[in-house]
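FORM 7B: Structural annotation worksheet

SECTION A. Query
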Amino acid sequence: MAREKTKPEEEKAAKEKATKAENVVLIGRKPVMNYVVACITFFNAGEKKVVVKARGRAISRAVDTIELLRRAFVKDLEIKNIAVGTEKLVRAEGQESNVSTIEITVTKAGSK
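SECTION B. Predicted structure
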């Protein structure tokens, strides 16, 4: 019986975590325009802020995404926060390596 009580709580926590991460765009290897469209989609869906996350070589693509979004598509875009960091990854060979990370939080200035 104790498991039955915790299962709905776990599901609720998972849903809350999913709703918090809905406005996150993870940058990978796709063309920059794909990520710009993803950000625009979030803003059109009513999100007030969007977080763009990247690591390693994709960091430059994240910066390009924000700049293209700001200059061409959303004129009243505000950059609220830029957080940089480092993650330790363990490669397949068992070797540890450091990978740089970036999180850029942007908001639409004219959003009510």
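SECTION C. Observations
The beta strands are 24-26, 49-55, 77-90, 96-108. The chain is about 40% helix and 35% strand.

SECTION D. Sign-off
Analyst initials: ____
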